Amino acid sequence: MRSPHLARCAALLICALLIGCGENAAPAFRGDAERGRLLYYGELAPLDVNSNAPRCIDCHPDSVGGQPAIMGNNLSNIGNRAAVTVPEQDAITYLREAILDPDKYLAGGFQEGIHYREYGQILSDQDVDDLIAYMLSLKSGVDE
Questions:
Q1: Radius of gyration of the chain (CA)
Q2: What is the pLDDT of residues 47-87, one digit of tens each?
Q3: CATH 1.10.3720.10, domain 30-136, yes or no
Q4: Is the pTM value of this prediction over 0.85?
Q5: How many beta carbons lie within 10 A of that of residue 101, not counting itself?
């Protein structure tokens, strides 16, 4: 017959191990795609018309057959491409780096130094998460 004390100790040990496993887990991603769309189009501060920063849409079309890309890639299918653009990198990490450190990986043969570099100083972490959520929703299936 097992002692109740031993059973309790085993249960506490299992709980401690489960809690400890979560310490290295990535924080939950909490982006709001609709708010991200408003940022992308410059309809929301800090990327609104009063900002010196370019709106995402100024360089990156987000629809198929829309305006031609002025400087950047068409992002109408970025929700499908982001997870496979950089080997062994998930979509959220790739998009975060593309926004905050745009020269780290140059997609589509673009040159270093073209992308606006100050988004990391004007966008909050939540702004970046919201932009990422919007971009992940762009899944046209067509790469232009």
A1: 21
A2: 887 888 999 998 888 887 666 666 778 899 999 999 998 99
A3: no
A4: no
A5: 13
